[in-house]
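Minutes, project check-in
Item: structure for the 620-residue chain
Input as provided by the requester:
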Amino acid sequence: MKTIRLTMGQALLKFLDNQYVEFDGVQKKFVKGIFTIFGHGCVVGFGEALESYKGDIVVYQGKNEQGMAHAAIGYAKQKNRREIIACTSSIGPGALNMVTAAGTATVNRIPLLLFPGDTFACRQPDPVLQQVEHPLSYSITANDAFKAVSRYWDRIERPEQLMSAMINAMRVLTDPADTGAVTICIPQDVQGEAYDYPVEFFEKRIHIISRREPSKAEIERAVAKIKNKKKPLIICGGGVVYSEAADVLVKFAERFNIPFGETQAGKGAVSWKHKLNLGGIGVTGGLAANRIAMDADLVIAVGSRLSDFTTSSKWLFKNPDVEVVSINVNSFDAYKMNACSIISDAKAGLEALYKALDEVGYMSSYKEEIEKAKKEWEEEVDRLFKADSENGLSQTRVLGELDKLIDKNDIIVGSSGSLPGDLQRVWRPEKPKTYHMEYGFSCMGYEVCAALGVKIAEPDKEVYSMVGDGSYLMLHSELVTSIQEGKKINVLLFDNSGFGCIENLQNSQGIPTFATQFKFRDEKTGRLTGQSIPISYAEVAKGYGCKTYTVTNIEELREAIKCARKDNVSTLIDIKVAPKTMTGGYESWWRVGVPEVSENQSVREAYQKMSEEIKKTKKF
């Protein structure tokens, strides 16, 4: 057997540079880059390999470990999970910073490959700098924290273990049903240890992403359930996007006259203008999809996790005869809500179901209900886009202007706060892959950092990060990286001086505003109820090297967007919006943990109301 002597770090990089995926006959290189923040836990081992390697993998310098991992997630999501950027960090705090991003990737089913540095496998210098010691077991390190949020986890304690670990890592990363965060812990000493690796380990390896076909029995069972239903509704989930099944979904919906609502991950797969597209569904959905859903006697979920926001905590579907058919490549998701499961690729499942339903001559019984619901909702969105506030710019008015000002080919990125709800309800995407929303984890700090990953994936398009001031303060580290790399992103910062979304939730359950506004501490009350903290985010970003604008009215917004399009560096537009000017709930409900006992009468009333609504939910 022919071998080559390499350090574990050198072998790891050589292996990564020869991984490819094939989908529908098209091959692509899988690992396109690596984000790094060097520390003693990786700089002289894996870092040496990265410095000396002459392959095609691009090395990016991150500014915060969580931030760079969010950028990697944004890249992989935009690339439909068929290309990735890996991440490596030092040990201890550097590694643990990536745990949140690992959770974000796993919840959203996005491939994320992490190489956190680890302590010494030999243990000779223990305890090393930044080592977390456990008296009961020296085998436990900070990196064990990744286990709960990883789809695959391993630790390389001998250089030859790399081979089985990385083959399994690729198995998970390229599996559309099982993908998520993959964490390979690399101890400091082992990174530099040499081994005679078989040359065949480094040969070009093609991972074929197959379209799993549904079984005949699954289709027959689903048809038997569907054929007698009068008012079905499709839920368009993220699986539609990753499967590239939008055209098939449209064909299916048109043939059987079935309307569809969109999840955050599925939004934008089909133009908002399509006559059967009712827009967002669930807690952050609109009137059209929610009203049709309440009367539906069948829900066909395509590539959806059926989260509490999509189903309104299993409350939305009011028809006593309603049943669920779920098409999903992941059996874990396909079985949710006691669904009649079709475990398959979204496109393959829709095609098979189309053929079978066509053969039995199926057709829904909808008449004018779909058109009426869609028309009423479009009129409401138009009203929101024109709504002013007595206290300044309303958030919905700003979104209405942005919907007109931003080119339909450009990409918006979002994740947390009130903006995802507003965007799912009112944003009107016409082109696929222009609506990029992380809402499985709704991770604050994703928006700006992921926008960099999206820009790396789509260098010829303008990318806009839609972010609130609360989330921006949490994490925007890779804004600096975007300047360093010449990858222009546009940060649209909605400044309402606090955590406005959570304040709304707080107030809606009878709790007075408390610690959700950015205010100075009042000396008399001892609480944070003083004057608002005056922050000029534009001035701060200007110090980074951004081109910045401050917006207090519509004219300034229009001018800022116009100028930002011409700028050749990253921009930040500080938009001062009035608090409590986001959209409402639109006949949805969300179960939250309201206190059963409280001195506050309004809280007790909220608990009673919550208890009544819980009675209306499906229990599993």
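Outcome recorded: The first helix runs from residue 8 to 16.
No further action items on this chain.
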